[in-house]
Amino acid sequence: MTNDIWAKVLAALKGALGANNFSNWIEPLEFSHLSGGVATFQVPTNFIGNYVSQNFGDQIIYHLNKLGEDVQRLQFTVPTQDRPTAEKKLRTVANTPVVNDLSGAPLDRRFTFDTFVVGKPNELAHAAARRVAEGGPVSFNPLFLYGGVGLGKTHLMHAIAHELKQRSPKLNVLYLSAEQFMYRFITALRERKMMDFKQLFRSVDVLMVDDVQFIGGKDSTQEEFFHTFNALVDGQKQIIISADRAPGEIKDLEERIKSRLQCGLVVDLHPTDYELRLGILQSKVDVYAAQYPDLVIAPGVLEFLAHRISTNVRVLEGALTRLFAFASLVGREITLELTQDCLSDVLKASDRKVTVEEIQRKVSEHYNIRLSDMIGPKRVRNYARPRQMAMYLAKHMTSRSLPEIGRRFGGRDHTTVMHGVRRIEELKATDSQIADDLELLRRSLQE
Ligand code: ADP
Ligand code: MG
Q: In what order do the strands lie in the sheet with 38-42?
């Protein structure tokens, strides 16, 4: 990527985010390099990087993609040396009063329970969040939500905060990321305002700390976090924590903190399944429909996206945003073809490479036969049919040629593979059991 393109992105962001946000968050970024779909920026502090990634990441990626750059992810690094420019840039951000400020990080208005789609992978986390959001006597403390990127942790936390504030407007709900907690702590230390800091954090009714894995390794911050935590628990105040992994697995976190975090309710958000993804897409489309009343989506497009983009919800949403923007720009119906054109990069990136070996393993598990029997020479139907299924899937889900596939099935000839593939093609049309098995296997291989 050239600096020229970045300059264009900057111009677009300035318009979109407003002068204040722009000078506080975007100006401190220094584009470093782009490789493998990851754009790297230097930032004066982790805090800025994290904030930008959470709040403006999607927009930055969107604009980069729009200008033809293949970027899927942003990465922020903090230079090890203290560079004068970074220092100077930091000062613009540090101007905000941090120590006495009870406002926390801004809550996204869209992240409510109403817009959260519940499915099997997240139903437990959702139920726990709902319970906490009802207020009332504190039943589990802390509530610890964990799960991979883009699975809805922040969304659920904001939803809790919105709900609590709506039910009791006087409640002091403080939501912030672990890095913001750290940043405030360090600022308080530097400005000798530790008393204010302690008082502030002990005066909240509900404390929410997002992405707490970032606290690992920061010893003095951990210490303070631990004390704040204990003081609040003792005072029967609700604490809600999120992280990208279970408490026990957070690196460089003190044992006593780990065990403290585990003593409430720990629930995880599982990776999305097809049904949940489809549900989320449908709910987003309903929102867009109001915004773009003329747009038409051909049948099958949402199913296609839910099927093909299985990484995380953020990517799924980004894809949909882009699709709608593109379709409305060119004034065309959103067909499968248009979808494939417009999202080719995203689709390519989330293409899971399935191997013949994986297919063989899945199929033999499915039919409860030994892998060696599937690959071996036996011709009895019990083995032959699963073998043909595996050949069919290998032909359709990998880029291997027929001879290559034959070799992986105990050195069979390519004509044998071809015969097997044809046989399954015939059966698929007449035998619904076979058709169902195929669909099931195909899906589980794509997950
Ligand atoms: P995390 O904090 O786990 O990385 P986020 O809460 O930021 O993930 O979610 C990423 C995006 O996906 C957000 O825009 C969020 O609204 C959306 N999202 C995630 N899960 C759901 C869901 N179950 N229903 C609706 N939107 C969701
Ligand atoms: Mg988050």
A: 30-35, 38-42, 73-77
Which residues place a Cβ less than 5 A from the ion ligand 2?
Answer: 153-154
Q: What are phi and psi of 401, to 5 degrees?
A: -80, 165
CA–CA dist 252, 161 (Å, integer): 29
For the chain, give the mean pLDDT: 87
Contacts of 260 by beta carbon, 8 Å cutoff, 6+ apart: 226, 229, 230
Ligand 1 near 280 CB (within 6 A): yes
Structure tokens at 271: 């990776």
> What angle, 0 to 180 degrees and rounded to 10, lies between the N-to-C axes of helices 194-202 and 219-234?
40
Cα–Cα distance for residue pair 270/122, rounded to 1 Å: 6
Identify the burial level of 27 via C-beta atoms within 10 angstroms of its C-beta, where 0-12 means exposed, 13-18 middle and 19 or more buried: middle
Query: What are the φ and ψ backbone dihedral angles of 204, each rounded to 5 degrees?
Result: -80, 155
Q: Of the candidates 199, 139, 212, 140, which has an alpha carbon nearest to the alpha carbon of residue 172? A: 199
Residue 445 has pLDDT above 90, yes or no: no
Q: Separation of 190 CA from ligand 2 center, angstroms?
A: 28
Q: How far is Cα 261 from Cα 255, in angstroms, rounded to an integer?
A: 10
> Does any ligand 1 atom lie closer than 6 A to the CB of residue 250?
no
Span 150-193, pLDDT tens digits: 999 999 999 999 999 999 999 999 999 998 888 888 888 888 88
Please identify which residue in the block is written with the tokens 């195909």: 442
Structure tokens at 241: 């924590």
Q: How far is the CA of 433 from the centre of ligand 1 (A)?
A: 36
Q: Is 151 in the pocket of ligand 1 (CB under 6 A)?
A: yes
pLDDT at 68: 87
57 lines ligand 1 (CB under 6 A): no
